[in-house]
Amino acid sequence: RLLGEPAGREMASAQGPQWAGNFDCAECRRKRLVGAEFSKSALEKHRRDPTAAMRCKTCVEAAAAAERGAAAERQRQAPLTAVGDEDAVVCSACARAHAPAAFNRSQLSKGVDKQRCQECVANAEKNAAGESKGRYAARLAEAKLAMQEAEASGSALQKCATASAYAAMQAECVTGLKPIKLGALRGGRGRGRGRG
Fold first, then answer.
1. Mean pLDDT of 51-78
2. Per-residue pLDDT, 145
């Protein structure tokens, strides 16, 4: 049994209990989503203006996939360019020459050393999303294990510290806010420099 958990109740998954949040997606109309369902910039925008419409990561990824599909269709319909044409653009990730239609406008404006084709951008986004979820699950499992070890050790200080770290990770998932360590903001002790 974990600290703060009722007797006889097991965790629902490796990520802990399923929480209800306080955020709504304007596009798919899902309600009570946790902060982890939204990007950091969307959460910051919502904190500045609570009336601003927010889109969850799922809707944003679906819109990006639709845009990539439309761009791929435009590329298929565009005439093929040979590698030697002056219009061909080289992708910095896969080092292949493509027609300009294979790139988003934002990628073309980045310059020769940084522009990536739509296929490479899609692969990078897919990998980054999977890695982020994997890192969070690993951190949460590590914190849960540390909490269980502290329970077994019997040290009240360890129990409190590990339970606080585990709760802070879950709260970060729900609210989208990173925990703040009290006293770590000023870098000094006491209330001032002294009286002169």
1. 82
2. 92
Nearest to 123 by CA among 68, 55, 56, 63: 68
Residues 6+ apart with CB under 8 A from 90: 96, 97, 98, 112
> Per-residue b/e over 49-69, b at no fewer than 16 CB within 10 Å?
eeeeebbbbebbeeeeeeebe
* Run of H or E including 166: helix 156-175
The average confidence (pLDDT) of the chain is 77
- What is the rounded CA–CA span in Å between residue 140 and residue 146? 10
Gap between the Cα atoms of 27 and 67, Å rounded? 16
Q: Say how far apart CA 48 and CA 141 lie, in whole Å.
A: 33
**Helix or strand or coil: residue 80?**
coil
Q: CA 182: distance to chain centroid?
A: 25
Coil, strand or helix: which one is 142? Answer: helix
Rounded Cα–Cα distance for residues 46 and 196 (Å): 45
Paired tokens of 133: 């979820």
Confidence of residue 3 (pLDDT cuts 50, 70, 90): very low
**Contact in structure between 160 and 146 (CB atoms under 8 Å):** no
Give dist(CA 58, CA 180) in Å, integer. Answer: 28
